[in-house]
Amino acid sequence: MAAALLCAGTANAFEAKLETTAEGDVKTRLEGASAILEAAKNAVTAPEEIIAAVQSDYRGLIGALYREGYYGPSISIRVDGREGADMSLISLPSTINTVVINVTPGPRFRFGSATVAPLAPDTQLPENFASGEVAKSGLVGEAKDVAIAAWRQASHAKAALSDQQIVADHNSKTLDVALTIDPGPAVAFGRLKFAGDTRVREDRLWRIANLPTGSAYDPDTLDLVTRRLQKTGTFRSITLREADALNPDGTLDITATLVDEKKRRLGFGAELSSLEGGTVSAYWMHRNLTKSADRLRFDAEIGGLGGTTGIDYSLGATYRRPATVTRKTTLVLGAEIEHLDEPDFLSDRGEFTISADVETSQNSTFSFGLGYRYSEVEDSLGSRSFSHVIFPINGSRDGRDTALNPKSGTYFNADILPFVGVSGSASGVRVMADGRGYLSFGDDDRFTLAGRLQLGSIAGADYTEVPPDLLFYSGGGGTVRGQPYQSLDVDLGGGNATGGSSFLGLSTELRAVVKGKISVVGFYDLGGIGTSALPGDAADWHSGAGLGLRYDTGFGPIRLDLAGPVTGDTGDGLQIYIGIGQAF
Question: How many CA atoms are closer than 13 Å to the CA of 226, on its beta-carbon side?
Fold first, then answer.
């Protein structure tokens, strides 16, 4: 018999021991399921709390053993020599010194027969829910849930377990399971009703939610309705509940209970780089502006504070109205003014756009629009002005497990900007694509390998004919860490420079959790700038590498990166980057 001393009491605490023949994962599960071991660890002294924990342990330990396939265990919990099950909460000892838990798991059972019927077409039951496999109790519940979910996917919204026969044969050490499912009738969606605390007009809620009344019931459609309502940013909580009974015509009503977010919100952000300086940003947002789940937001940002470049600032406003023109289209109106004081140019820009965000899938977005863009610049080519009609297009797919600290999945975003010159400005198209991938491995996914590929290109216009803020540069936190901000450009001779027509960037990171919320990161970044639509033999390249430290705050890691140049002649020395969230 193996014994484990789990907690030694203090002067006023009690001692708890687990004595069991179980080993490995089974023993660990018993330790984790024991309320009395937890009470001892937390130095509980009140006798009524200790006895309550003891009595709850009988059920908890049996459940832990059932989940591992042990259906004939022996459990004894003795409190100062007395069996805890026989003790009353009414008559308690004044003090308790020792609790000894003795568990003999007994033999492990296997499934004799394991059936669920009837099944919806193409139902895939759990692989281990089969004759001869270890009869873990969780597999029985999982098989039931899978069978019911498959019927619901087939429009049988009221599918339920109607009968179960579970027999443990202690002679043969087998568990026979027979589950019977009542699929109920195939149903269609009925009315969508609304409840809760919301100021959004009901006609707008119907249009945004877009529940297809009269069509076949599908739980995925309910998930889609929830996402449509969430996407507005208007609601703090959204709960969809199916009616308990079908309507006489066989349809099923749905009730959406909504609670509004606060109407107004103010937010702030900050980043710091040793060369680029500090960047501070703020926004103010008004939700449900016209009781249509619409949203007005103002953004302001000032960059280059204390850095070696000049001061940049921008001010923008965005208005979003969901379910406009079509039920799956969000109208977006945007306006922005911006001043950039960059190493190679000065730019003042104003822009207005009207666009539409179109519902595509759960992880994908697509938008297109029309706008006007005007900029005045001073750079190595002189003082110039540009006037363009623009047609912004964006598409993205986000398959990451989380945006601020991804450990698995992929991400892709592409911005396509056709621009038509007005008053002598050149015409062309600008493309910027960003792809990222993440793979975690090791115990508890301790290590994460992250990679990023960026590709930028301008076609149809020479780099000397395009506003410099649309051209490409490399160096700094968003491209190549360890190299000065926008330090790689196109050399025009005589100390003059401008941006390029193409950019190719590659970044790799290996992230490792050191302890708790602290992680370290090693990274390498490479960037190239070319004068043609694609970086070729004539492109210039540089790279940087470094180490970083992360502290996970729960909503995203605080990031500190130290980097220096590896190749190229665009900079030297150590660069420091501070921000929130991973670098990519």
Answer: 15
Contact by Cβ (8 Å): 371, 362 = no
Q: How many other C-beta atoms lie within 10 A of the C-beta of residue 328?
A: 15
The 10 Å Cβ neighbour count of residue 228 is 22
Closest CA to 584 of 527, 512, 507, 499: 507
Q: What is the pLDDT of residue 196?
A: 95
- φ, ψ of residue 265 in degrees (nearest 5): -145, 140
The sign of the torsion formed by the CA atoms of 229, 234, 240, 243 equals negative
DSSP letters for 432-452: EEEEEEEEEESGGG-EEEEEE
Q: Specify the 3-state DSSP secondary structure of 61.
A: helix
From 566, 488, 553, 555, select the one nearest 522 (Cα to Cα): 566
pTM of the model: 0.74
Q: In which region does residue 494 sit, left (phi positive, over 0), alpha (psi from -120 to 50) or beta (all else)?
A: left
118 preceded by a cis bond (ω within 30 of 0)? yes
According to the model, what pLDDT value does residue 2 have?
37
Beta-sheet strand order (sheet of 15-20) = 2-7, 15-20, 98-104, 74-79, 82-83
Q: How many residues does the chain have?
A: 584
What pLDDT, in 10s, does the model give residues 145-194?
A: 999 999 999 999 999 999 999 999 999 999 999 999 999 999 999 999 99
Question: Which amino acid is residue 386, in one-letter code?
Answer: F
The C-alpha atoms of residue 501 and residue 396 are separated, in whole angstroms, by 23
- Asked if 150 and 85 touch (Cβ cutoff 8 Å), the reply is no
Element (H, E) at 47: helix 47-66
Cα atoms in the Cβ-side hemisphere of radius 13 Å centred on 523: 34
Q: What is the dihedral of CA 146, 152, 157, 159, to 10 degrees?
A: -40
Instruction: Report pLDDT for 275.
Output: 65
- The whole-angstrom separation of Cα 513 and Cα 443 is 10
3-class secondary-structure state, position 31: helix
Q: What is the rounded (10 degree) CA torsion for 491, 493, 494, 498?
A: -40
Chain-centroid distance, C-alpha 198: 27
Residue 5 has what pLDDT? 36
The residue ranges of the chain whose pLDDT is under 50 are: 1-11
How is the chain split among helix, strand and coil, in percent rounded to 5?
15, 50, 35
